[in-house]
Structures are given as C-alpha cells and as structure tokens.
Amino acid sequence: MTASPTIRAGIGGWTFEPWEGTFYPAKWPKKRQLEYASRHLPTIEINGTYYRDQKPATFADWRAQVPEGFVFSLKANRFTTVKKVLADSGESVERFIRSGVTELGPALGPIVWQFAPTKKFEPDDFAAWLGLLPASHDGVALRHALEVRHPSFVSPDFVALARRHGVAVVHADHHQYPEIADVTADFVYSRLQKGEDDIPTAYPPAELERWAERAKTWAEGGQPDDLPLAAPAMQPPSACRDVFVYFIHEGKVRAPQAAQAFIAECCKA
Length: 269
Known about the structure:
The chain is of the alpha/beta class. It has a single domain (7-266), classed as Protein of unknown function UPF0759 (TIM Barrel, Alpha-Beta Barrel). The protein has 9 helices and 11 strands. The strands form 2 sheets. Strands 8-7-4-3-2-1-11-10-9 form a 9-stranded parallel β-sheet. It has a two-stranded antiparallel sheet with strand order 5-6. Helix 8 crosses helix 9. It is globular, with a radius of gyration of 18 Å. The model has no long low-confidence stretch (mean pLDDT 95).
C-alpha cells in the first residue's frame, strides 16, 4: 500500500524503428534509446523477458541507464504460464525470479504473468499456482499482475482469489479479450490496446482525458463506475494505489505520444 500514489504511463519496450525520428531525435544512437526514453517517460514494460530469461548483468545495465524514480515492468517468462497444470510450474517460477530481476532494485515494478487466450480458469490449479509466487526475493518486494485472456476468468471467484493473494488483475482495453477492471491489489495495471497510428496521440484527446480521470479514481482509492467488473458486489478497500498504464499493441507508432499526453492530462487539476 502506498501513502503517496503515483500514476505512471509508458510503452512496451524502447526499440521500435518507427519511433526513430518521431519519438527519438533524428540519428539518435540506438544504444542510447533507453537513456532517452526513460527521461521522457516514467515507465516501460519489457517484453523480451517473456521470450527468454536475461542475465543478471543485463538487468543491472538497464538499471544503470535510467534515472531515479523510473520503473520497469517485466513480462515473466512464457514457459511458466503455458503449462497445462500450473501447479507444476514451481521450478519455472523460481528460475525466472532468480534470473536477476532484483538487480533492477528500486526500478523493478510489477511482474506480469501473461496467459494464452486459450487458458481457462481452473480455480484449484490457479490457487495452487498463485501460492508459488514469492512476495519478495533478495530483500526486494515483488508485485505480481495477471494478464488473463479467456472469458472464463470473468468470474467473482477469480476476483476473490486474486484479491486474497494480493495480485493485480491486468485491465485490458482490447478489441477481443475480456475487460476486467476489478481492483484486487494495492496497485492497478492497465494496458490500453485500442490506439490508432493515424491519431497523433494513438487515442483521441477526449478518450485520453477519460482514461486519465479513471486513473485518478484508481489512485485515490476508488473504482471507476464506467468500466466492466467481474465481481461488482465485491468492493475493494478504499486506499491510495500506484497506477501503471501502458499504451501497447495497436497504435504503437504513436504510443510514446499517447503516454506523454496521458500524463499531461493526469497532471491537470
């Protein structure tokens, strides 16, 4: 729980050719793109960790390139969440956590465990798997977020389970996947994935304004009344929360501008 909530908005990764000359200055060196991005955005979601484990030295190098207050979120390795029986993935969970993620120190934000769209909610197995997620490692507190994409997760039982374990359910503004906006942890993680490349800020200004108001509501301890809930009868505790918002997937070309415009909206009185 945080006494002084922070709303952060960012992008997925920092290497993307269309950002060269549109977000990064012309001829900006690729090896300094993280340096630049981390000084113009407060957070970045790393997708590369989803496909393969990184070395401790890599995490340490990333931390060295970013300023104080910047936060990474990490996609956990996919080999954990693709297992048919999640309760059997303890070794995979431990291997990822021990791969060096805590080298990020204070720059380590939420760890996102992404599940395939075909993965259904099986309460007993999922409960057993949640019990495998450590609350800390090497003295560093860990925050976990679950990105589920099968309609079976739109269930009060899932919300209750996530809340009991203190993990966040990723809110997804997506054209196909279910949107679950229930607050289940002391932070909120939202992925806005309906942007368009031909809009200068990916989302229209009026929509960004609405999302900024929702983020403020989350941060202040509330729950927006215009987003779908899987368990509307189960209200979360009213407490200040950190909020992480990422402009991902569709509209990626304009994602940096979307995040910057969103932050500007959040700063308005």
